[in-house]
Amino acid sequence: MKAHIVNRLLLVEDESLVRMVAREVFQDDGFEVLEAETGDEAIQMLDDLDHVDIVVTDVRMPGRHDGVDVALHARLRFPRVPVIVATGYATNIRDRLRQFDPSAVLVEKPYRLDRLAELARALSGSPQNNQ
């Protein structure tokens, strides 16, 4: 029998309702979800993790660090980790994301959470949850 592998997803979102609903969608899709409310909190969490399989972050958040800073820090800690960056202000973010190799995936708001979960599953190599 094949062991079920659960991928660890770091979700960084300052809007509590969006974060709560997103967490449920990702968990229903088979992810272990770690949550951060700010970029600062996410960076601290990344420093304490032994691994993360994918990072999903909003760009604009309170605190010193935004979502692009989180993505950069995630790549410093885990160089090949897939990163999804969500924003409603894509124009000025595209230039900042050009430095990523492999590319960070930009998702423009508004987005559908089920599509975001599908993208996260595909990028992280997580098998489809067929419950």
From TrEMBL:
UniProt keyword terms in alphabetical order: Phosphoprotein
Modified residues annotated as 4-aspartylphosphate in this record: 58
Lineage of origin: Bacteria, Pseudomonadati, Pseudomonadota, Alphaproteobacteria, Acetobacterales
Transmembrane segments: none
The Response regulatory domain, residue ranges: 8-124
Name recorded for this polypeptide: Response regulator
GO BP term, pick one: phosphorelay signal transduction system
Keyword Repeat: no
Organism listed in the record: Teichococcus wenyumeiae
InterPro entries in alphabetical order: Bact_response_regulator (IPR050595), CheY-like_superfamily (IPR011006), Sig_transdc_resp-reg_receiver (IPR001789)
